[in-house]
Each structure stands twice: as structure tokens, then as C-alpha cells.
């Protein structure tokens, strides 16, 4: 990642050094010349980006293969609102790098190939807000609350574990 940033900065600097103003004075119009050094740097940049993409794809394949090799009877995945998550400036870069759609599509085809039922849970299913013990929905659960405490039965457990139990019980409505 650092190498990628450095190369991008180098290309940007080369373009900035080689720009020639055109048009009337006061206009911000420039002509950019592509030197052989810029072409060489862009080729290197493309190779680095391809390498990173291949590393991500390899990781996705290894992870999905590990999941499918455990031979579950079914796999339930939440249909996440990725577009909405990208609007969060703190999460957007990390989310873009993860390739959620590619992960889910690869997991789906591998599970179907191995005869495992694949279910996409509805985006609005309250998996984190529902108590896995008694079924009560806690409306005021914030993202920063990492421990789920049920208001009616006082059950305490990790928020993600509670959501995974609820997703394992998820029934697809017809």
C-alpha cells in the first residue's frame, strides 16, 4: 500500500511538472504531456494495483473455501447496505477495499456447488437487535454497544454472537 501511494505521488508530480498552460491568461487550462517516464510509472502502478487485487481475490477464495469445507447445512448472509455504508467517511475506504459483493457471490456459488443451502437475510431483519433467548427486539441499540443486554430477560452476550444465533434461526419468508 505504501509503494502504491508513493508511485501515485510520483506520477502526479511528473504530470504537474510537465503541464503547459494553454488558452488566454487567467484561464486554468493546461495541456499535459505524457513522457516516457510517466508511461513507465503508470505501467508500474498498474502492476501494483493488479497485484493487490489478486491478493484480495486470493484471500476471498481462501476464506470462502474454509467456510464451505466446514460442511454447514446452510449459510445465512446479511444483505448489507453497502452504498449506505460508503457514505460514512470513516468506513468508506476500508469497505471499498473489502469487495463485499465479490465475497458473497463467490461464497454463493461455492455453497451451491457443494450442495449447501445459501440464504440472504433481508437487509431490514433486526439480527443484532433481537434477543436470541426470548425474541424481544431492543429498539435503541447503538453501533458502539458491543454487548447486547436484553431488557426483558437480562441475557448478556456479545452483539455479534447474538446476531449470528439469530441469523442461524432465520427463516426465508416466501
From TrEMBL:
Residues 31-58 form a coiled coil. The keyword DNA-binding applies. Signal peptide: none annotated. Residues 100-167 form the Cas12f1-like TNB domain. Keywords: Coiled coil, DNA-binding. GO terms for molecular function: DNA binding. This is Transposase. It comes from Clostridium manihotivorum.
Amino acid at each position: 500500500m505504501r509503494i502504491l501511494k508513493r508511485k501515485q505521488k510520483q506520477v502526479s508530480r511528473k504530470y504537474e511538472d510537465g503541464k503547459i498552460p494553454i488558452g488566454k491568461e487567467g484561464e486554468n487550462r493546461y495541456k499535459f504531456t505524457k513522457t516516457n517516464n510517466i508511461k513507465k510509472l503508470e505501467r508500474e502502478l498498474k502492476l501494483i494495483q493488479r497485484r493487490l487485487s489478486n491478493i484480495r481475490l486470493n484471500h476471498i477464495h481462501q476464506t470462502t473455501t474454509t467456510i464451505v469445507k466446514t460442511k454447514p447445512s446452510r449459510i445465512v448472509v446479511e444483505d448489507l447496505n453497502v452504498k449506505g455504508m460508503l457514505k460514512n467517511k470513516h468506513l468508506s475506504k476500508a469497505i471499498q477495499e473489502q469487495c463485499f459483493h465479490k465475497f458473497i457471490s463467490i461464497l454463493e456459488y461455492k455453497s451451491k456447488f457443494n450442495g449447501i443451502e445459501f440464504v440472504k437475510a433481508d437487509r431490514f431483519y433486526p439480527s443484532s437487535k433481537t434477543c436470541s433467548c426470548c425474541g424481544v427486539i431492543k429498539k435503541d441499540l447503538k453501533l458502539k454497544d458491543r454487548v447486547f443486554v436484553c431488557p426483558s430477560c437480562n441475557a448478556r452476550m456479545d452483539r455479534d454472537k447474538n446476531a449470528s444465533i439469530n441469523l442461524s434461526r432465520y427463516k426465508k419468508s416466501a
